[in-house]
Each structure stands twice: as C-alpha cells, then as structure tokens.
C-alpha cells in the first residue's frame, strides 16, 4: 500500500503539527456511547456478528479521512493510501489474546468474508501475533466486552510519536429501549483536533443508523 509523504509548504496543518509534535507533544482520547439498537437488529436478521461489522464501520471512517491515516515513515510525515484494521481476539482458555489483521474492502460483504477466512485460519491460534507479515498500513482496534466503561486511555511509552488512531469498544448495555456501545477514540493532537474526533464518532453513529444501506 502506498505511503504518500506531505511536501513542505503544502500542508495547512504544519504549524499545528510542529506545535503538538515538536514543542508540546500531546495525545488525547474521547469516549462516546454509540446507539446500536437498529444495527444489532439488522445483524441478527442477517446472521452477522457485531465485531466484524464494528471493524468495517471503523475502517470505512478511517479510510474516508486523511487525518486518521497519518504516519511517519523514514522520518517523513505523510499518510497511507488505505488502511486495514489490526484487532484483538480473546482466548478464554488461558485469558490471553492474539492481534491479527484483515485487509480492508469497501464492500461490507467482502470484508466480512475476509474476516471469516481469517477467523477460520487464525482464530484458535495462541500467541500475540499469529498472522504473520502484518503490513504497516494498519490501525489498532480492541474490545473490552466485560465492562461498559465511561472513559478509556491507553498509555504508550512512545505515544508522543504514534500518529495513528487507536479505537477501543466496551460492553454494550441497555438504556430504556436503546442499546448503547461505549467507544473510545485515541488520537495524536498533532494530526487531529477535537473537531476530527467528534466527526469520527458522529460518522460512526451515522453508520449505525444507516446500516441497512451499507450491509447489502
């Protein structure tokens, strides 16, 4: 997958990047409850699971906005042409997990099939990274389905230089007639502001609300 460097003087965000990456390195996270009542109903009718649908929705948003594809390669700031999700699979046998990746497809059905193939091949394999040759154009997703958290922050030792988004989902819960899924988005302030984080979560809600449009 092609990495596209940003040329000097051709980026409106350059002074913001310099400030939050060179002078005052800063990451932040934002958590919101996404209503998935309709989404769960449609998935059940179609015999589909929430996790791969969640991965598809996240990947669709990431690939729609360059701010969520920013990276540094060979000391050059740029963005990936396309990104795929790297996500965790829990092993109840020994309470460990594996991190694997599935190549992104803009077609939901195609992505679901690729996900299914990866589960059949790697789902029961123990180890941290069981699918070899993970490409650099991946972003991280994890689930904590045991708790409906109200906030989540992942502290990386090298977090000051990690530009890609990190998304974490929690245990969905009922509130009246609605089903809500807590989702935390962690980004680097050098490439994303509150506007971009808010846009990400708003678009995630829109995809949940319009799931009948993109599932076919």
Automatic annotation (TrEMBL):
Family matches, as InterPro entries: CAT-like_dom_sf, Chloramphenicol_AcTrfase_AS, Cmp_AcTrfase
Active site per the UniProt annotation: 189 (proton acceptor)
Family annotation (Gene3D superfamilies): Chloramphenicol acetyltransferase-like domain
Pfam families referenced in this protein's UniProt entry, alphabetically: CAT (PF00302)
Top-level taxon of origin: Bacteria
Catalysed reaction, written as an equation: chloramphenicol + acetyl-CoA = chloramphenicol 3-acetate + CoA
Keywords, ordered alphabetically: Acyltransferase, Antibiotic resistance, Transferase
Example of a GO MF term: chloramphenicol O-acetyltransferase activity
One Gene Ontology term from the biological process aspect of the record: response to antibiotic
Protein EC: 2.3.1.28
PROSITE patterns assigned: CAT
Binding partners and assembly: Homotrimer.
Family to which this protein belongs: Belongs to the chloramphenicol acetyltransferase family.
Function noted in UniProt: This enzyme is an effector of chloramphenicol resistance in bacteria.
Protein name: Chloramphenicol acetyltransferase
Organism ancestry: Bacteria, Bacillati, Bacillota, Bacilli, Bacillales
């Amino acid at each position: 997958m092609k990495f596209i460097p940003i040329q000097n003087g051709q980026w409106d965000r350059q002074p913001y990047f310099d400030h939050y990456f060179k002078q005052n390195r800063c990451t932040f996270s934002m958590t919101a409850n996404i209503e998935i009542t309709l989404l769960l109903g449609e998935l059940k009718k179609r015999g589909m699971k929430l996790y791969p649908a969640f991965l598809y929705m996240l990947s669709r948003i990431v690939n729609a906005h360059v701010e969520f594809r920013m990276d540094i390669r060979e000391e050059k700031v740029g963005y990936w042409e396309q990104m795929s999700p790297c996500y965790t699979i829990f092993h109840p046998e020994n309470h460990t997990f594996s991190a694997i990746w599935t190549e992104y497809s803009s077609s939901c059905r195609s992505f679901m099939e690729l996900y299914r193939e990866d589960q059949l091949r790697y789902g029961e394999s123990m180890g941290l990274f069981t699918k070899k040759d993970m490409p650099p154009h991946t972003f991280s997703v994890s689930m904590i389905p045991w708790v409906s958290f109200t906030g989540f922050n992942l502290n990386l030792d090298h977090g000051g230089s990690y530009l890609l988004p990190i998304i974490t989902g929690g245990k969905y819960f009922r509130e009246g007639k609605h089903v809500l899924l807590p989702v935390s988005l962690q980004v680097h302030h050098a490439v994303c502001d509150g506007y971009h984080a808010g846009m990400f979560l708003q678009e995630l809600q829109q995809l949940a609300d319009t799931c009948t449009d993109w599932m076919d």
